[in-house]
Specification:
By secondary structure, the chain is α+β, with helices and mostly antiparallel strands. It is built from 3 helices and 3 strands; from the N terminus they run E-H-H-E-E-H. The chain has a domain at 14-69: Arc Repressor Mutant, subunit A. Strand 2 (45-47) and strand 3 (50-54) form a beta hairpin.
């Protein structure tokens, strides 16, 4: 059985708690905390007493980490990731 933080995240959820957000990003909770601290990932929001992360904000930050802040769509970049 998978560890709690590594469970599959149902696509119906948009707001994720910390272990789910870390798993969604493919990193450990400790690494996720580090990414949040250095602002590579967004800060969570308190909603109804729960600290949650918005999946759309996580996607935007993942795109920025992978493809740079100029374009979040890798199809818009050159084949090697460099603009021609």
């Amino acid at each position: 059985m998978a560890a709690r933080s590594e469970r599959i995240i149902p696509s119906a959820y948009r707001l994720l708690r910390r272990p789910q957000a870390a798993a969604y990003c493919g990193v450990s909770v400790g690494k996720f905390d580090q990414l949040v601290q250095d602002r590579s990932m967004p800060r969570g929001h308190w909603i109804g007493g729960c600290l949650v992360w918005d999946m759309k904000a996580l996607d935007e930050n993942i795109d920025a980490l992978l493809y740079g802040s100029e374009s979040s769509d890798p199809a818009l970049a050159g084949a090697d990731g460099w603009d021609d």
